[in-house]
Amino acid sequence: MAWDSDPVIITVAPVGAEVTREHHPGVPYSTAEVAAASLEAVQAGAAIVHLHARLPDGTPSGDPALFAEMIGAIRAGSDALTMCSTGGAVWMSMEERTRCLDAGPDLCSLETGSMNFGDDLFMTSRPDGIAAAARARSLGIRPEIELFDVGHAVAATRLLREGHLDGPLNCNLVLGVPGGIDAVPDAVPALLRPLPQDLHWSVTAIGRHQRRMLAVAVLMGAGGIRVGFEDNVYLRKGRLAASNAELVADAADLVRALGRRVATPAEARAMLGLPARG
Ligand code: KMH
Ligand code: ZN
């Protein structure tokens, strides 16, 4: 299919490790809250849910039981694909970050390098990335490689060449994290350049540049885009989004306005090479 007739997968990231209720009073913390926000977002057009776990007081956690609760509720209420974050929070050990794999998601995020992340260090050594990839493979979980800068794309291509990752790569271009590549149109070809042609790629953009960068991505043929409170809590300048679902609905409108179609969960599975849900 031509790029413009391929559907666009919308991923929702309803809560990350950094966003709090000081940023938006509706940030979901408990597993029930995250599951409810996710299901509402799936109704609005999301096919993938990217998950971080929080304790009820908002503290990020790697506890696989929390991830399993969210995954169970999302699968009970929808066909959406679930993704656990192995990025976790900047202060988590690699062991803590990868505990979520035991919850059995369809997908997991995977880092291939280190970076400054705001005022913090976000560290993933090459051996740690290789070990996480091996563990995901042994559990049948498909990685989504998070590319915050060009070196991460070079490293991902090397991991593929060396057989640590299976092709075609599934990469998410993350634009606008302070310390990573900035959220500008030129960043997209810069991140794609080191990657193989046979690729599924999506775009995430942080904060105020989100909507226009997602439009750039849709027009450049991205296979997916991501929205949600992990990345941005505003619908428009100065106007908080009512919910994660409102951000997804807005992204879906954007996809359609630009002449493309929103992927269903079944289409997303096929595009990512995952088996149909039994
Ligand atoms: N919370 C960030 C330090 C991921 O999900 O893989 C890492 C992150 C990326 O959110
Ligand atoms: Zn994340």
Topology:
Blueprint: E1 9-12, H1 31-43, E2 48-51, E3 53-54, E4 60-61, H2 64-77, E5 81-84, H3 94-98, E6 107-111, E7 115-117, E8 120-122, H4 126-138, E9 142-147, H5 150-161, E10 169-175, H6 187-192, E11 199-205, H7 210-219, E12 224-227, E13 234-236, E14 239-240, H8 244-257, H9 265-271
Parallel strand pairs: 1-2, 1-12, 2-5, 5-6, 6-9, 9-10, 10-11, 11-12
Antiparallel strand pairs: 3-4, 7-8, 13-14
Helix pairs in contact: 1-2, 1-8
Bound molecules: (5S)-5-amino-3-OXO-hexanoic acid and zinc ion.
Concise structural overview:
By secondary structure, the protein is an alpha/beta fold. The protein has helices at residues 31-43, 64-77, 94-98, 126-138, 150-161, 187-192, 210-219, 244-257, 265-271; strands at 9-12, 48-51, 53-54, 60-61, 81-84, 107-111, 115-117, 120-122, 142-147, 169-175, 199-205, 224-227, 234-236, 239-240.
